[in-house]
């Protein structure tokens, strides 16, 4: 769960990151990962052990972005937003996997993946078949790890803290809200009155999500919306038997989308 609130780096890491206590806590966390890796090596288990390192979402504002910026560090890099937002800064995360027996050291993949994929990936590693109501949104990343394929997903769905959804397919990303859907400006209820209800971004040319092009490419927005609502109706985003979605809010989301988009 670290680094997370409360920010509690051990004393020997205080002041060592050159940023603030959150940066020191990241160093503490990295040190723990190193200790685990060294122990696996000492016990002869390193070669055939999957060691995965990731974050659950973008960085939270509680780390004091302004203080970090003054030190020359931006946790979201050049992505817009942070934890809780629908924007890329809320979802782009570090993801490092070590498995010397199967994964080539130093290899890098540019494929779109999600942490929900870990279930299907490990099931694939163990040759375990998932049931129809298990891992409905999980796609095996094993072909990426072994470099047999360069892509495993057709698209990916995200959700902000207020329940707003987005779908990314290829270079396009459709966001079903007029603002961040989270804690960054514009927060829910604080969007400009003339803001479009939805947002469409070309991540290939605008990775910072600065130019909403939904008015320019309405057909693309409609296509992505139909894929998204199809997943909601099917109760899954992978091939398989239709599954039930829990909660009335799912159907209210569909009705809201269709009402806003016509």
In short:
Helix content is 27%, strand content 10%. It is of the alpha+beta class.
The value of Rg in angstroms is: 20 Å
The main sheet orders its strands as 3-4-5-6
Rough outline: globular
Mean pLDDT across residues? 94
CATH class of one domain, named Alpha Beta
Query: Secondary-structure element sequence?
Result: HEHEHHEEEEHH
Q: What is the chains' assembly state? A: single chain
Helix amount, in percent? 25-40%
Number-wise, the strands total 6
Main β-sheet description: 4 strands, antiparallel
Distance between the termini: 42 Å
Q: Helices and strands: which structural class?
A: alpha+beta
* CATH topology assignment of one domain: Arylsulfatase, C-terminal domain
Low-confidence stretches are: none
CATH architecture of one domain: 2-Layer Sandwich
Helix segment count? 6
Q: Strand fraction band? A: 5-15%
Strand and helix map with partners:
Layout (H helix, E strand, L loop, with lengths): L20 H22 L8 E4 L10 H6 L24 E4 L18 H9 L16 H4 L10 E4 L5 E5 L2 E4 L23 E4 L15 H17 L13 H14 L1
Helix pairs in contact: 5-6
Describe the structure.
- The mean pLDDT is 94.
- The protein has a domain at 156-261: 2-Layer Sandwich (Arylsulfatase, C-terminal domain), CATH 3.30.1120.10.
- The strands form two sheets. Strands 3-4-5-6 form a four-stranded antiparallel β-sheet, with helices on one face. A two-stranded antiparallel ribbon has the order 1-2.
- By secondary structure, the chain is an alpha+beta fold.
- The chain contains six helices and six strands.
- Helix 5 runs antiparallel to helix 6.
- The radius of gyration is 20 Å and the shape is globular.
- The protein is 27% helix and 10% strand.
- The longest helix is centred in the first third of the chain and has 22 residues, at 21-42.
- Strand 4 (165-169) and strand 5 form a beta hairpin.
């Amino acid at each position: 769960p670290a680094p997370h609130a409360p920010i509690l780096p051990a004393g020997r890491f205080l002041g060592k990151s050159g940023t603030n206590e959150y940066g020191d806590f990241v160093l503490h966390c990295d040190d723990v990962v190193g200790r685990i890796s060294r122990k696996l090596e000492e016990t002869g288990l390193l070669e055939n052990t999957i060691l995965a390192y990731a974050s659950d979402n973008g960085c939270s504002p509680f780390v004091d972005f302004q203080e970090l910026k003054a030190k020359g560090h931006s946790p979201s890099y050049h992505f817009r937003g942070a934890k809780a937002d629908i924007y890329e800064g809320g979802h782009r995360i570090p993801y490092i996997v070590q498995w010397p027996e199967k994964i080539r050291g130093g290899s890098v993949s540019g494929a779109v993946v999600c942490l929900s994929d870990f279930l299907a990936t490990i099931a694939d590693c163990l040759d375990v078949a998932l049931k129809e109501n298990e891992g409905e949104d999980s796609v095996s990343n094993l072909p990426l790890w072994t470099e047999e394929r360069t892509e495993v997903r057709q698209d990916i769905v995200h959700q902000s803290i207020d329940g707003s959804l987005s779908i990314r397919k290829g270079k396009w990303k459709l966001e079903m809200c007029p603002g961040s859907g989270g804690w960054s400006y514009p927060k829910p209820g604080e969007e400009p009155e003339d803001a479009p209800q939805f947002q469409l971004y070309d991540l290939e040319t605008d990775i910072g999500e600065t130019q909403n092009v939904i008015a320019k490419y309405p057909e693309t927005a409609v296509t992505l919306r139909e894929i998204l609502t199809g997943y909601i109706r099917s109760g899954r985003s992978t091939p398989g038997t239709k599954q039930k979605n829990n909660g009335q809010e799912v159907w209210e989301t569909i009705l809201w989308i269709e009402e806003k988009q016509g």
